[in-house]
Each structure stands twice: as C-alpha cells, then as structure tokens.
C-alpha cells in the first residue's frame, strides 16, 4: 500500500515540498503519496490526528505550525528540543508522534555543498526568529571560531546566545554590535521578504566570505545583491529547502536522495 505523507501549513498552496518529495520518491523508487494540507490555524493537533487516522505516516510542518507541532509530540529529537520547533513529524509503530527539526542540518549541508567551511569560521547570523533558533545547534556543532547573532530586537538575540551558550562560543546583540570582518554571514531575518536590508556596515565581509540568505526567489534578494557588490560569494536558501526535505525523507524512509538534481530542476520553476 502507498504510504501517505504531507506538508501542513496555512497558507500552503505555494509550497514546493510536494514537488520535492515526488522527485525524491521517483529517484529512490519509494512508493509514497505526498500532498499539501492547509490545517486550521487553531487546531493543528486535530489536523495531524485526522491525517494519521486516515493512514498518514509522517509530515512536514511549516509556518505557522512549527511550535504547535512541537507541543503535540510524544518524543523529540535533541535538536528539535533545542529549537523549540518541529518541521518533521513521524508516526511510530506504537502510534506515538515523534518530532524532529531538519532546517539546521539542511542549511549546514547546503553550505557544505557550496564548499563553505564552517570549522574555524567567523560566523554572523542575522535574525533571531524561529528559523535562526533552528540552525544554531548544527552551526555551533561545526566548530566555528565565533558566532554572533544580531537582531533588530537585541534582547531576542541575547536570549538565544544564553540558551545555546553550552554548545560553543556564541554572542548576541542588536545590529549596532556588528563589526566585521566575517567569513560567513547568514541572513535569517524576513527583511528580504519586504525587499528590506538590515543596517549593516560596509566592511562586513572578510576575503572569500560567503553571504547566505535563507530566502530564495527568481531574483537575488536585496541582501545578496548588496553582498555581491561588496565581494562576497552569494548563496540563496533554495538548497536549504531541498536539503531539509532530504533529511525528512531520510527520517521517514531510511534513504538519502540526491539533492543537486532536485535543486536544479526546482530552480527552473522559480
Ligand atoms: P520569524 O517571523 O520567526 O522571524 C523573523 C525575523 O526577522 C526576526 O528576527 C525579525 O526581527 C526579523 N525581521 C523581520 N523584518 C525585519 C526587518 N525589516 N529588518 C530587520 N529584521 C527583520 O521568521 P522565521 O525565522 O520563521 O523566517 C525567517 C526567514 O527565513 C524567512 O524569510 C523565511 O522564508 C526563511 N526560511 C527559509 C527556510 C528555507 O528552507 N530556505 C526555512 C525557514 C525559514 P525582530 O525579532 O526584531 O522582529
């Protein structure tokens, strides 16, 4: 029988996840059906319950349900517990719900694919929302020389730095504490959505630095255009999207799909 999976969000019609997982299934020969489901804003748990009652085996979870998904899980991976959010749900054979977050591993794998070395790097992360919380653990695990989290609301970045301090060298503050040079600068704010750029100094990038924007689109974001003019190599978040999906697929099916061909065909649809 075909195993059922889905992505929950609201709204969800824009989601590329069904396309990505269909490509993974075809490539690996896995017999799965993966759909997009718009869950009610006030009853995510009910949507998951109904899905599993109808035979659903697992799901991805996107905005705005990652925290609600976290709350309903019977068991959590350590990285999901740290992130306080779940983007991957798995129904165990015992009927219990297990939660994981694969966004951070997706970001780190994408950076690796682009030849970016994080070990010993001076890393700046912009933003302190859900996406940034989800990527700090694997970034710190990669062994950077330093990691600064800078956010419009400084207190949120300071709080994140306290929460993750046991994992490595991490500081938090407002944009005013940002002083380069950095080797890797990751924009995890949603400023790019509105075509805005956080206030950043001109000497942000060291020689050979990489600028990464978690957002992606047909055109480079304002942040990536700004970074390219200052000599940085630029990467958008499309690869992160595909890599986090590949890690979810692995959690469900035990197979690792090749991500590069999927990323390339997805880029042609932007
Ligand atoms: P949140 O709403 O949780 O957080 C938004 C963050 O952006 C906050 O830190 C906020 O600062 C900051 N921000 C918003 N507007 C501005 C602005 N004009 N100037 C400076 N800072 C601003 O969002 P998420 O963390 O969930 O998502 C952030 C981004 O990451 C989105 O663009 C999202 O699309 C992308 N993303 C990409 C993924 C991928 O797979 N490629 C996966 C997940 C997310 P403050 O705290 O001061 O409000």
From TrEMBL:
NADP(+) binds at residues 78, 127-131, 151-156, 214, 237. Residues 7-89 form the Shikimate dehydrogenase substrate binding N-terminal domain. GO terms for cellular component: cytosol. Its EC number is 1.1.1.25. The active site is at 66 (proton acceptor). Residues 237-267 form the SDH C-terminal domain. Shikimate binds at residues 15-17, 62, 87, 103, 216, 244. Keywords: Amino-acid biosynthesis, Aromatic amino acid biosynthesis, NADP, Oxidoreductase. GO terms for biological process: amino acid biosynthetic process; aromatic amino acid family biosynthetic process; chorismate biosynthetic process; shikimate metabolic process. Residues 117-166 form the Quinate/shikimate 5-dehydrogenase/glutamyl-tRNA reductase domain. GO terms for molecular function: NADP binding; shikimate 3-dehydrogenase (NADP+) activity. The keyword Methyltransferase does not apply. It catalyses: shikimate + NADP(+) = 3-dehydroshikimate + NADPH + H(+). InterPro entries: Aminoacid_DH-like_N_sf, NAD(P)-bd_dom_sf, SDH_C, Shikimate_DH, Shikimate_DH-bd_N, Shikimate_DH_fam, Shikm_DH/Glu-tRNA_Rdtase. The keyword rRNA processing does not apply. Involved in the biosynthesis of the chorismate, which leads to the biosynthesis of aromatic amino acids. Catalyzes the reversible NADPH linked reduction of 3-dehydroshikimate (DHSA) to yield shikimate (SA). Belongs to the shikimate dehydrogenase family. This is Shikimate dehydrogenase (NADP(+)). The gene is aroE.
């Amino acid at each position: 029988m075909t195993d059922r999976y889905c992505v929950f969000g609201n709204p969800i019609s824009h989601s590329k996840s069904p396309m990505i997982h269909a490509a993974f299934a075809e490539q690996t020969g896995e017999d799965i059906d993966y759909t997009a489901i718009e869950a009610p804003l006030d009853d995510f748990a009910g949507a998951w319950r109904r899905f599993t009652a109808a035979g659903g085996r697992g799901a991805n979870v996107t905005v705005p349900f990652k925290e609600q998904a976290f709350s309903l899980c019977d068991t959590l991976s350590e990285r999901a517990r740290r992130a306080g959010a779940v983007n991957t749900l798995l129904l165990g054979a015992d009927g219990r719900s297990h939660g994981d977050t694969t966004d951070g591993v997706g970001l780190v794998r994408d950076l690796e694919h682009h030849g970016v070395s994080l070990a010993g790097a001076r890393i700046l992360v912009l933003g302190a929302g859900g996406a940034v919380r989800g990527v700090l653990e694997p970034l710190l695990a990669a062994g950077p020389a330093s990691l600064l989290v800078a956010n419009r609301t400084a207190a949120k970045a300071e709080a994140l730095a306290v929460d993750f301090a046991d994992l490595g060298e991490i500081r938090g503050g407002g944009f005013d504490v940002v002083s380069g040079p950095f080797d890797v600068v990751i924009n995890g704010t949603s400023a790019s959505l509105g075509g805005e750029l956080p206030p950043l100094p001109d000497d942000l990038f060291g020689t050979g630095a990489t600028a990464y924007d978690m957002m992606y689109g047909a055109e480079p974001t304002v942040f990536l255009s700004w970074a390219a003019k200052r000599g940085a190599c630029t990467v958008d978040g499309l690869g992160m999207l595909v890599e986090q999906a590949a890690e979810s697929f692995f959690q469900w099916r035990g197979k690792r799909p090749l991500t590069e061909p999927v990323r390339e065909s997805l880029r042609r649809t932007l």
